[in-house]
């Protein structure tokens, strides 16, 4: 790979250089995956790969330049290492396992800072979905989420810990909390007892008893 002093000067003007243990963000053009792009001698290169080359004097075209920081726009040579595609994938898998383990409980459902929904919204979405006169896109617009989000919720692919949904949802025994949810939903007046039964995987007769406070009574 050939480059000259002007190429190096141009390269470093596009880098936010910080302490050696921090990410050095690429400030110029990036590709769709977030990797920096730079043209050297009419050849378009990934910025982090060029950074590795100028600091180590070589880079095998058959190997990957990987990030220990998992930040694709970082060009800090201290954060770069070289390996095979398998090395790179294994590294991603291991890091993903660690992240998922840490976030599994604290980021579930409405505990997640990214969540727009609350548990009562999820139940309402599954409720509305049972009414075939309502379009999925209208449900999505009502809750400011995507159609895919709605489909994942009603198919129980997401928010699995919140009960209520279509006939394919996992069955769960009722308790006082769920019984009170049933009473609150029915009190809004926009759902039949039969549909409530489908949502919670119980018979209409059980719904009748709950609403009459004969089972799972309000204390």
Description:
The protein has 2 domains: 5-106, Homing Intron 3 (I-Ppo) Encoded Endonuclease, Chain A (Alpha-Beta Complex), CATH 3.90.75; 109-211, no CATH class. The chain has 9 helices and 6 strands. It has helices at residues 5-12, 47-56, 85-106, 119-130, 136-143, 147-154, 176-187, 193-200, 204-211; strands at 15-16, 25-26, 37-40, 43-46, 64-67, 80-83. 22% of the residues are buried. Mean pLDDT is 78; it is low at 165-172.
Any key phrases for this structure?
44% helix; mainly alpha; two-stranded antiparallel sheet; single chain; 219 residues
- Helix fraction by DSSP (H/I, runs of at least 4): 40-55%
Shape: rod-shaped
Could you describe the largest sheet, including whether it forms a barrel? 2 strands, antiparallel
Total of DSSP H or I helical runs spanning 4+ residues: 9
What is the succession of H and E elements?
Answer: HEEEEHEEHHHHHHH
Global Rg: 27 Å
Low-confidence runs: 165-172
Strand runs, count: 6
Structural class: mainly alpha
Strand content: 5-15%
Gap between N and C termini:
77 Å
Strand order, biggest sheet? 1-2
Total domains: 2
What would the average pLDDT be, to the nearest integer?
78
SSE layout:
Blueprint (H helix, E strand, L loop, with lengths): L4 H8 L2 E2 L8 E2 L10 E4 L2 E4 H10 L7 E4 L12 E4 L1 H22 L12 H12 L5 H8 L3 H8 L21 H12 L5 H8 L3 H8 L8
Antiparallel strand pairs: 1-2, 3-4, 5-6
Helix pairs in contact: 5-6, 8-9
